[in-house]
Protein backbone atom coordinates (compact mmCIF):
# COMPACT_ATOMS: atom_id res chain seq x y z
CA UNK A 1 0.00 0.00 0.00
CA UNK A 2 1.23 3.47 -0.81
CA UNK A 3 -0.26 6.93 -0.56
CA UNK A 4 -0.02 8.25 -4.13
CA UNK A 5 -1.23 11.79 -3.65
CA UNK A 6 -3.10 14.28 -1.56
CA UNK A 7 -5.22 17.08 -3.01
CA UNK A 8 -6.11 19.91 -0.67
CA UNK A 9 -8.36 22.88 -1.34
CA UNK A 10 -9.83 25.29 1.19
CA UNK A 11 -8.55 23.21 4.12
CA UNK A 12 -6.94 25.34 6.85
CA UNK A 13 -4.05 27.38 5.34
CA UNK A 14 -4.43 25.75 1.89
CA UNK A 15 -6.66 28.25 0.14
CA UNK A 16 -5.51 27.25 -3.35
CA UNK A 17 -5.80 23.86 -4.94
CA UNK A 18 -2.64 22.02 -3.81
CA UNK A 19 -1.44 18.65 -5.07
CA UNK A 20 1.17 16.65 -3.16
CA UNK A 21 2.56 13.53 -4.81
CA UNK A 22 4.35 10.98 -2.61
CA UNK A 23 7.16 8.63 -3.54
CA UNK A 24 8.07 5.29 -1.98
CA UNK A 25 9.76 5.22 1.43
CA UNK A 26 9.99 7.95 4.00
CA UNK A 27 8.47 11.37 3.30
CA UNK A 28 9.68 14.38 5.27
CA UNK A 29 7.75 17.64 5.15
CA UNK A 30 9.95 20.64 5.86
CA UNK A 31 9.27 24.38 5.80
CA UNK A 32 9.28 27.56 7.87
CA UNK A 33 7.14 28.00 10.96
CA UNK A 34 3.48 28.45 10.14
CA UNK A 35 3.88 27.29 6.54
CA UNK A 36 1.36 24.47 6.95
CA UNK A 37 3.42 21.32 7.64
CA UNK A 38 1.16 20.14 10.45
CA UNK A 39 -1.89 21.08 8.39
CA UNK A 40 -0.81 18.48 5.80
CA UNK A 41 -0.78 15.70 8.40
CA UNK A 42 -4.10 16.96 9.72
CA UNK A 43 -5.52 16.89 6.19
CA UNK A 44 -4.60 13.18 6.03
CA UNK A 45 -6.18 12.47 9.42
CA UNK A 46 -9.24 14.50 8.48
CA UNK A 47 -9.88 12.88 5.09
CA UNK A 48 -9.66 9.45 6.76
CA UNK A 49 -12.61 10.36 8.96
CA UNK A 50 -11.04 11.93 12.05
CA UNK A 51 -13.85 13.15 14.33
CA UNK A 52 -11.77 14.59 17.15
CA UNK A 53 -11.45 18.30 16.49
CA UNK A 54 -8.89 18.70 19.27
CA UNK A 55 -6.58 16.37 17.31
CA UNK A 56 -7.08 18.76 14.41
CA UNK A 57 -6.32 21.77 16.65
CA UNK A 58 -9.86 23.01 16.04
CA UNK A 59 -13.10 23.37 17.97
CA UNK A 60 -15.68 22.71 15.29
CA UNK A 61 -16.04 21.52 11.71
CA UNK A 62 -16.02 25.07 10.30
CA UNK A 63 -12.56 25.81 11.79
CA UNK A 64 -10.86 23.62 9.19
CA UNK A 65 -12.21 25.74 6.31
CA UNK A 66 -9.90 28.47 4.92
CA UNK A 67 -10.82 31.51 7.02
CA UNK A 68 -9.70 34.12 4.48
CA UNK A 69 -6.95 36.72 4.47
CA UNK A 70 -6.89 40.45 3.64
CA UNK A 71 -6.34 39.62 -0.03
CA UNK A 72 -8.42 36.48 -0.35
CA UNK A 73 -12.00 35.81 0.81
CA UNK A 74 -12.83 32.86 3.02
CA UNK A 75 -13.78 29.58 1.37
CA UNK A 76 -17.24 28.05 1.53
CA UNK A 77 -15.94 24.53 1.66
CA UNK A 78 -12.85 22.50 2.59
CA UNK A 79 -12.01 19.52 0.43
CA UNK A 80 -9.26 16.92 0.75
CA UNK A 81 -8.77 13.89 -1.48
CA UNK A 82 -6.29 11.11 -0.77
CA UNK A 83 -5.36 8.51 -3.40
CA UNK A 84 -4.02 5.17 -2.30
CA UNK A 85 -2.34 2.51 -4.42
CA UNK A 86 -4.26 -0.69 -3.72
CA UNK A 87 -2.51 -3.10 -6.09
CA UNK A 88 -1.73 -5.38 -3.14
CA UNK A 89 -5.44 -5.38 -2.20
CA UNK A 90 -4.65 -4.43 1.41
CA UNK A 91 -7.98 -2.65 1.31
CA UNK A 92 -10.65 -5.22 0.46
CA UNK A 93 -12.24 -3.26 -2.39
CA UNK A 94 -12.07 -4.20 -6.08
CA UNK A 95 -10.03 -1.14 -7.07
CA UNK A 96 -6.30 -0.83 -7.83
CA UNK A 97 -6.40 2.79 -6.74
CA UNK A 98 -8.72 4.08 -4.05
CA UNK A 99 -9.52 7.73 -3.62
CA UNK A 100 -11.27 9.08 -0.56
CA UNK A 101 -12.68 12.58 -0.50
CA UNK A 102 -14.02 14.52 2.46
CA UNK A 103 -15.79 17.85 2.21
CA UNK A 104 -16.90 20.16 4.97
CA UNK A 105 -19.33 23.02 4.43
CA UNK A 106 -19.85 26.09 6.58
CA UNK A 107 -23.27 24.68 7.57
CA UNK A 108 -21.33 22.00 9.49
CA UNK A 109 -22.26 19.28 7.02
CA UNK A 110 -19.50 16.81 6.11
CA UNK A 111 -19.61 14.43 3.18
CA UNK A 112 -17.44 11.50 2.16
CA UNK A 113 -16.79 9.92 -1.23
CA UNK A 114 -15.00 6.70 -2.08
CA UNK A 115 -13.88 6.64 -5.72
CA UNK A 116 -16.33 9.41 -6.50
CA UNK A 117 -19.36 7.77 -4.86
CA UNK A 118 -21.01 9.01 -1.70
CA UNK A 119 -19.93 6.88 1.23
CA UNK A 120 -20.65 6.50 4.93
CA UNK A 121 -18.24 7.81 7.52
CA UNK A 122 -17.98 4.23 8.85
CA UNK A 123 -16.73 2.92 5.49
CA UNK A 124 -14.10 5.66 5.33
CA UNK A 125 -13.00 4.99 8.91
CA UNK A 126 -12.61 1.27 8.17
CA UNK A 127 -10.25 2.11 5.30
CA UNK A 128 -8.54 4.65 7.58
CA UNK A 129 -7.89 1.93 10.16
CA UNK A 130 -6.20 -0.28 7.53
CA UNK A 131 -4.10 2.65 6.31
CA UNK A 132 -3.24 3.56 9.91
CA UNK A 133 -1.74 0.10 10.40
CA UNK A 134 0.61 0.65 7.45
CA UNK A 135 1.81 4.19 8.00
CA UNK A 136 3.42 6.15 10.77
CA UNK A 137 2.91 9.90 10.78
CA UNK A 138 5.49 11.57 12.97
CA UNK A 139 4.48 15.02 14.19
CA UNK A 140 6.90 17.73 15.17
CA UNK A 141 8.09 17.00 18.70
CA UNK A 142 7.37 13.29 18.36
CA UNK A 143 11.04 12.53 17.76
CA UNK A 144 11.92 13.96 21.19
CA UNK A 145 8.94 12.14 22.65
CA UNK A 146 10.14 8.83 21.18
CA UNK A 147 13.53 9.34 22.81
CA UNK A 148 12.00 10.15 26.20
CA UNK A 149 9.29 7.46 26.52
CA UNK A 150 9.70 4.14 28.32
CA UNK A 151 11.35 1.22 26.48
CA UNK A 152 8.01 -0.68 26.57
CA UNK A 153 6.11 2.19 24.94
CA UNK A 154 8.93 2.64 22.40
CA UNK A 155 8.67 -1.06 21.53
CA UNK A 156 4.94 -0.59 20.79
CA UNK A 157 5.72 2.38 18.52
CA UNK A 158 8.43 0.43 16.68
CA UNK A 159 6.05 -2.49 16.25
CA UNK A 160 3.46 -0.15 14.76
CA UNK A 161 6.08 1.41 12.47
CA UNK A 162 7.25 -2.03 11.34
CA UNK A 163 3.64 -2.91 10.52
CA UNK A 164 3.58 -6.03 12.68
CA UNK A 165 0.80 -4.98 15.04
CA UNK A 166 -1.81 -6.75 12.93
CA UNK A 167 0.23 -9.99 13.18
CA UNK A 168 -0.05 -9.72 16.97
CA UNK A 169 -3.81 -9.19 16.63
CA UNK A 170 -4.06 -12.31 14.45
CA UNK A 171 -1.89 -14.28 16.92
CA UNK A 172 -4.20 -13.25 19.78
CA UNK A 173 -7.28 -14.26 17.78
CA UNK A 174 -5.71 -17.64 16.93
CA UNK A 175 -4.70 -18.24 20.56
CA UNK A 176 -8.27 -17.44 21.62
CA UNK A 177 -9.66 -19.91 19.08
CA UNK A 178 -7.11 -22.52 20.23
CA UNK A 179 -8.20 -22.04 23.85
CA UNK A 180 -11.83 -22.54 22.77
CA UNK A 181 -10.94 -25.73 20.90
CA UNK A 182 -9.02 -27.06 23.93
CA UNK A 183 -12.02 -26.22 26.10
CA UNK A 184 -14.33 -28.14 23.75
CA UNK A 185 -11.90 -31.10 23.72
CA UNK A 186 -11.92 -31.20 27.50
CA UNK A 187 -15.71 -31.22 27.49
CA UNK A 188 -15.77 -34.12 24.99
CA UNK A 189 -13.31 -36.06 27.18
CA UNK A 190 -15.50 -35.41 30.24
CA UNK A 191 -18.56 -36.65 28.36
CA UNK A 192 -16.68 -39.75 27.19
CA UNK A 193 -15.49 -40.46 30.76
CA UNK A 194 -19.03 -40.01 32.08
CA UNK A 195 -20.47 -42.45 29.55
CA UNK A 196 -17.89 -45.19 30.37
P1 LIG B 1 5.23 25.18 12.93
O1 LIG B 1 6.53 24.77 12.31
O2 LIG B 1 5.32 26.54 13.59
O3 LIG B 1 4.60 24.16 13.82
P2 LIG B 1 3.63 24.46 10.60
O4 LIG B 1 4.44 24.56 9.35
O5 LIG B 1 3.39 23.09 11.13
O6 LIG B 1 4.19 25.42 11.72
P3 LIG B 1 0.82 24.73 10.64
O7 LIG B 1 0.65 24.65 12.12
O8 LIG B 1 0.50 23.54 9.82
O9 LIG B 1 2.29 25.22 10.31
O10 LIG B 1 -0.01 25.94 10.05
C1 LIG B 1 -0.37 27.01 10.84
C2 LIG B 1 -1.01 28.07 9.97
O11 LIG B 1 -2.25 27.60 9.48
C3 LIG B 1 -1.27 29.31 10.79
O12 LIG B 1 -0.75 30.41 10.07
C4 LIG B 1 -2.77 29.39 10.84
O13 LIG B 1 -3.23 30.70 10.84
C5 LIG B 1 -3.17 28.67 9.57
N1 LIG B 1 -4.53 28.18 9.62
C6 LIG B 1 -5.05 27.24 10.44
N2 LIG B 1 -6.38 27.10 10.23
C7 LIG B 1 -6.69 27.99 9.25
C8 LIG B 1 -7.90 28.33 8.59
N3 LIG B 1 -9.06 27.73 8.87
N4 LIG B 1 -7.85 29.30 7.64
C9 LIG B 1 -6.69 29.91 7.34
N5 LIG B 1 -5.51 29.63 7.91
C10 LIG B 1 -5.51 28.69 8.87
UniProtKB/TrEMBL annotation:
ATP binds at residues 32-39. Transmembrane segments: none annotated. It is found in: Cytoplasm. It comes from the Bacteria. Belongs to the SMC family. Contains large globular domains required for ATP hydrolysis at each terminus and a third globular domain forming a flexible hinge near the middle of the molecule. These domains are separated by coiled-coil structures. Required for chromosome condensation and partitioning. Homodimer. This is Chromosome partition protein Smc. The gene is smc. The chain holds residues 1 to 196 of 1181 of the full protein.
Amino acid sequence: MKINSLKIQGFKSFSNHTLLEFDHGITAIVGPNGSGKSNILEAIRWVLGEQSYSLLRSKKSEDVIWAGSPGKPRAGMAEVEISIDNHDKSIPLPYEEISITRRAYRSGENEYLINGRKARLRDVQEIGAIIGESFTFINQGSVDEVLLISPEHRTVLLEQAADITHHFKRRDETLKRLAEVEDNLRRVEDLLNDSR
